[in-house]
Amino acid sequence: MLDYSKEADRYDASRGGEPRAAAAASAVLGLVPAGARTLLDVACGTGLVTRRLADRDGLRVTGVDAAYRMARMAAGRVPGAVVLGDSRRLPFPDAAFDAVSTVWLLHLLSGAEEARSVVAECARVLRPGGVYVTTVDKAASHDVGSDIDAVLAPRPVRPAVDRADAVAAYAAEQGLVPVGEAGFRGHGQGRTPRSTVDDLRRGWFTRIPPESPLAERLAAGLARLPDQDVARPDPRFGLRAFRKEVHKEIHEEVHREVHKEG
After folding, report:
1. What is the pTM of this model?
2. Which of 81-85, 90-94, 107-111, 126-130 has the lowest mean pLDDT?
3. Is residue 150 part of a domain?
4. Which residue of 13, 50, 85, 184 could cross-link 91, Cys pair, CB 3.0 to 4.6 Å?
5. What is the per-residue pLDDT for 39?
């Protein structure tokens, strides 16, 4: 995995910048109930999306990230609302938030067990009736059927831990039920042959060592493509939303209180 503290300075420019952040935040907020008053943005990175989430009137947003330099940048964008913390052990009490988001996190995790633990933590800090929103199928979103994708086809691919069906299963284990989905365009993220070679060289493709023979073969194939600096189509990212079920005991307690007051 990339060292995201080292990536912090170039992260925004290399990931679609403000246009992608605006699209992501708008799509996430479209799945967050209007009545939500608190939202936790897990793995908030540099805070580019977090800041836009916080623009919704009446919504208090908190960001958390494990990479110190990422969290420091986010704190500059959302002052007083960002903490350093591990998504597998969130530093918040149970049922603390009306909504929780993980944007471009689950695909980075080592496997199903780690993804399951992160979803469990998000469910733990979510109040009953609250909504969890997450990106899914991140890697697949970048495969747009271009000539670049054809050259990259022989590469080894790690089984995706953020497949939509897998994420739904992790969520179901925590009493989270599907309530919606959305998509948004990754502005300015269409690959060019030249930028893809650069990604190979810096280890962006985690199953391909940068100095390996396979990396060299793929780089040579990419170098032969036309229009070396012309971007291919942008990816389209997917979101899924899940609601934390309200247990029967809570329903009964609310009913008793309402009946008593009546």
Report:
1. 0.84
2. 107-111
3. no
4. 85
5. 98
Q: Could you please report the per-residue DSSP string of the chain?
A: ---HHHHHHHHHHHTTHHHHHHHHHHHHHHHS-TT--EEEEET-TTSHHHHHHTTSTT-EEEEEESSHHHHHHHHHHSTT-EEE-BTTB-SS-TT-EEEEEESS-GGGSSSHHHHHHHHHHHHHTEEEEEEEEEEE-HHHHT--S-HHHHHHTTS--PPPTT-HHHHHHHHHHTTEEEEEEEEEE-TT----HHHHHHHHHTT-STTS-TTSHHHHHHHHHHHTSS-TT---PPPEEEEEEEEEPPPHHHHHHHHHHHHHH-
CATH classification of the domain holding 27 = 3.40.50.150
Number of domains composing the chain: 1
Across 228-255, average pLDDT: 80
- What pLDDT does residue 248 have? 44
Q: Which domain holds residue 98?
A: 4-142+158-189+233-261
82: nearest Cα among 132, 131, 44, 49: 44
pLDDT at site 232:
96
Give a yes or no: residue 219 inside a domain: no
Residue 31 lies in a domain: yes
